[in-house]
C-alpha cells in the first residue's frame, strides 16, 4: 500500500503547484471557464488505465486540469478530453504535450 500512498501524494503536490500558480488562489475551471476549479481532474488518461505500474503516467502535471464540481463528469468524456488537450497545450506547449503523449505505454496505438 505504500506505492498507492506515494502516488496520491504526487497528485496532491501537483494540485498545490497549480493552485500556487493561480493569482486568485483557485484556478478557473479549464472546462467551463466560469467557476473556480475546486477539483483536479485526470484530464487525458484516467485512473482506471490499468496496473499500478502505469500510474506513473497518470499522476503527472501533463494529465492534470483544474475543474469545478459541475464539470467533473465532463472531464471523463471525449469532449472533455478535447477541451483538456487544448488547455494543456496552451499551458505547456503543443510540442511538449505531443512528446508526452508519444511516450505513453498504450496497449493499442492510435490512428
- Walk across the major sheet and give the strand order: 1-2
Helix content, binned percent = 40-55%
Low-confidence stretches: 1-6
Order of helices and strands: HEEHH
- How many structural units, i.e. domains? 1
The biggest beta sheet reads: 2 strands, antiparallel
Kindly state the number of beta strands. 2
Tell me the Rg in angstroms: 14 Å
Question: How would you characterize the overall build of this protein?
Answer:
- With 111 residues, the chain is mostly helical.
- The chain has one domain.
- 41% of the residues lie in helices and 7% in strands.
- It is built from three helices and two strands, in the order H-E-E-H-H.
- The chain has a two-stranded antiparallel ribbon.
- The longest helix has 20 residues.
- The N and C termini lie far apart (37 Å).
- The N terminus is likely disordered.
Topology (SSEs and partners):
Blueprint (H helix, E strand, L loop, with lengths): L1 H20 L17 E4 L21 E4 L10 H15 L1 H10 L8
Antiparallel strand pairs: 1-2
Could you give a quick summary of the protein structure above?
By secondary structure, the chain is mainly α. The chain has helices at 2-21, 78-92, 94-103, and strands spanning 39-42, 64-67. The chain has one domain (2-103).
What labels would you give this structure?
111 residues, mainly alpha, globular, disordered N terminus
